[in-house]
Amino acid sequence: MEKDLTEFVMSLVVDSVAKNFERFPALNGVSLTVPQGAFLALVGPSGSGKTTLLRILGGLEFPDSGTVRFADINWLEVPARQRRAGFVFQQYALFKHMTVEKNIAFGLTVRPRHERPAKKEIHRRVEELLALVQLEGLGKRYPNQLSGGQRQRVALARALAIEPRMLLLDEPFGALDAKVRKELRVWLRALHEKMGITTVFVTHDQEEAFALADLVAIMNKGRIEQYGTPADVRRSPKTPFVAEFLETGPQRNGLLPPHAVGSHPA
Amino acid sequence: MKRRYPTQDHPLLRLLLTVIAVSVIGLFLLLPLATVFSQALSKGVVAALEALKEPDARSAIWLTLLVAAIAVPLNAVFGVAASWAIAKFDFRGKQFLTTLIDLPFSISPVVSGLIYVLIFGLQGWFGESLRDANIKIIFALPGIVLATVFVTFPFVARELIPLMVDQGRDEEEAATSLGASGWQTFLRVTLPNIKWGLLYGVLLCNARAMGEFGAVSVVSGHIRGLTNTMPLHVEVLYNDYQYVGAFAIASVLALLAIVTLVLKSLLEWHFADEIAATHRH
Amino acid sequence: MNVAVSRWRNPSALPGFGLSLGFTLFYLSVIVLIPIAALIIRPWSAGFSGFWHVLSDHRVLAALRLSFGGAAIAALINAITGPIIAWVLVRYSFPGKRILDALIDLPFALPTAVAGIALSTLYSTNGWLGEPLSHLGIRVAYNPLGVVLALTFIGLPFVVRTIQPVLTDLSREPEEAAATLGASRFQTLTRVVLPSLMPALLTGATLAFARAVGEYGSVIFIAGNIPAVSEIAPLLIIIKLEQYDYAGASAIGVLMLGASFVLIFALNLLQNWIGERR
């Protein structure tokens, strides 16, 4: 899994991004550079600002200061609907009143007429995506007729349908049980290998982050404590927080007793 | 001995409370309703139907439908706009805005009519200029519509605001990040999610719009065949001792109320999750 | 580059903020705020003494006393029967319950004029209920008693509908705990259940009071409208308007509007209090 980072074209550049909510600072000047095609995990305790950063990348939230550039364009100037950032929400945010097919096709059917693929083509793409996420034959179902893991994969297929320029996942496995979590994790990594899209993944589970990502950013109180490859971070934790996080992490996340994996609240 | 759970009431207490509740509802709510129909039919079905065919009665029915057809869509559009702004965005003064939207509920219907008389009446702000321009608002259709819009102002909004706040922004954000425009997001994602709540609000709004009496009474001028809505015509006939006619029209309004209650209950039973759970009116 | 941050709202990815809020504020101003402002500034042409002169009139005072007093008594009656009805509808099951439950909203749905003539007919001396009552020497119609009756009718759903959801969500565990601690069922009801319903009960009663104070349609038919005896304040506004006494009408109107504001404020305080208790 180790790759030579210099091979990547520098791609997503976050510089001194800060964001205050009414009472508390969510981000305190965050900077990082994510190479094209990398798989980045933002990991940290709740309230560390990781979801806020992800939502800024998706255009769902706006920083008070700082810049974000992607493929050398000012990413903050691009409205959410034009970013083509495939966003997978924590609670999936599937459209309850639409079938799985309609959910997946949504991003294609809302395109202006001249950009919109023909009906047949949309149908073909939906079938393709259903196969990719291993949900063949479930296209006519409604979200509430699916299991949590299936919904998760619909959300992913829906995000992939728009041929995203980056993939943003907010605690995508948070609501799933340990077994499904593990399966989806392997599957997601494989999918990433196949598609090669820059992926940013938010989790509070450091074991999950280290198992999946090319790069991890450990966040705490709106700052990045350490940023690097999982191996580097594990080898030399830079701050006491990181050291402690790595230490307490496995216990909390059930690395040692396998039956406890994912048993903590999402 | 039959065992009783500690949270169960003694059978005698149970009986007593049930009798109280049933008799209050029966005597207080059901009996007045029964009176309406029995009085309307006291001279037979034919007499009641004849009363509804009177030209003044027909014009009152027509006016009531017309007023509701204007007032209800206006307030529905307002309700959707207000709840979109309040539920989907964060801004200062939101709580205050919500209180202001509820304001017409707490104001006496008569005062609701009065405020428009003070603006558009002959001695009102624009009274003389309106007279010179030969525009009639008070004692005419526009005044009746305005008063009706005022008293039914919050119905749709207050149903939709808690519902849309509850539903959150995830689905709309998902739609936006998938490239949908504002209207696409609203029509294809939001509207299907709020349609039953919207219908519920419209239903209550319409019942009040067709039945409003006090506010309309102030601005209408009670001109028979011209500015009398059904409730006003009921009053005119009743004060004229034309009881069959008064109660015949009252029966139509009572039927409207019953239909409203049935539809409302159906919506509550079948779509409990898709209408706001708040039972405040 | 910094994204501009406006201080009064958080930026959002969703569109339509300007349009929806703009329309909301415009419509609110035109329909509600400006007309209310027109009322508030109206009665002061003759200064405060002119305003006071209108309100201190014997007939006006009597009407205000009847509207506020009658509404208070009606709210009190509903504060007693409301919880009983809500309790029966939530905790017991019996045939026809759903229909009874739906009927609770009748005073909301039935046009007030219809309710007015129905109550008036029902309680007149030859009505279904008025006749037996008159044999007992009780006259309801054309009496202040009739006003209270109509105001009770109109306020009933407020109390029931405010308590019902609270009762439905109420956990049974405190009741079970009380039982294990040796409380009788009566003690449990009065000292455990009722206090937890108190905020909802107060809210419901206040809503019923607010509605009743300004009520017009359901009252005027049964009241008989005898000046200074059974004449309510909203009716007096209409009478003054018919006499082209705009200043008099708007003086009473402003007073009633002030009462509405006080009640809204009280309800907001109640809501905050409930919020803090949670």
Q: Please, how many domains of chain C?
A: 1
What gross morphology of chain C would you assign?
globular
Provide mean pLDDT of chain B, rounded: 86
Largest sheet report of chain C = none
Please count the helical segments of chain C: 13
The total of helices of chain B stands at 13
Rounded to the nearest angstrom, the radius of gyration of chain B is: 23 Å
Oligomer: heterotrimer
Radius of gyration of CA atoms of chain C, rounded to a whole number: 23 Å
Task: Give helix and strand order of chain B, one letter per element, not per position.
Answer: HHHHHHHHHHHHH
Silhouette of chain B: globular
Distance between the termini of chain B: 45 Å
Secondary-structure element order of chain C, as H and E? HHHHHHHHHHHHH
Low-confidence stretches of chain C: 1-5
Could you outline the blueprint of secondary structure elements for this entry?
The complex is a heterotrimer of chains A (266), B (281) and C (278).
Chain A: E1 10-20, E2 25-35, E3 39-43, H1 50-58, E4 65-70, E5 73-74, H2 80-83, E6 85-88, H3 100-109, H4 119-132, H5 148-161, E7 166-170, H6 178-195, E8 198-203, H7 206-212, E9 215-220, E10 223-228, H8 230-235, H9 240-252
Parallel strand pairs in A: 3-8, 3-9, 6-7, 7-8
Antiparallel strand pairs in A: 1-2, 1-4, 4-5, 9-10
Chain B: H1 11-40, H2 45-53, H3 55-88, H4 94-106, H5 109-120, H6 127-132, H7 141-151, H8 155-167, H9 170-177, H10 182-211, H11 214-220, H12 230-239, H13 243-270
Helix pairs in contact in B: 1-13, 2-13, 3-7, 3-8, 3-10, 3-12, 5-7, 5-11, 7-11, 8-10, 9-10, 10-13, 12-13
Chain C: H1 17-41, H2 47-55, H3 58-91, H4 97-103, H5 106-109, H6 112-123, H7 130-135, H8 144-169, H9 173-180, H10 185-213, H11 217-223, H12 233-242, H13 246-277
Helix pairs in contact in C: 2-13, 3-8, 3-10, 6-11, 8-10, 8-11, 9-10, 10-13, 12-13
Description of the structure:
- The complex is a heterotrimer of chains A (266), B (281) and C (278).
- Chain A is α/β, with parallel strands linked by helices and 266 residues long.
- Chain A is built from nine helices and ten strands.
- The N terminus and C terminus of chain A are likely disordered.
- Chain B is globular, with a radius of gyration of 23 Å.
- The N terminus of chain C is likely disordered.
- Classes of the chains: A alpha/beta (266), B mainly alpha (281), C mainly alpha (278).
- At the B-C interface, helix 1, helix 3, helix 4, helix 5 and helix 7 of B face helix 1, helix 3, helix 4, helix 5 and helix 6 of C.
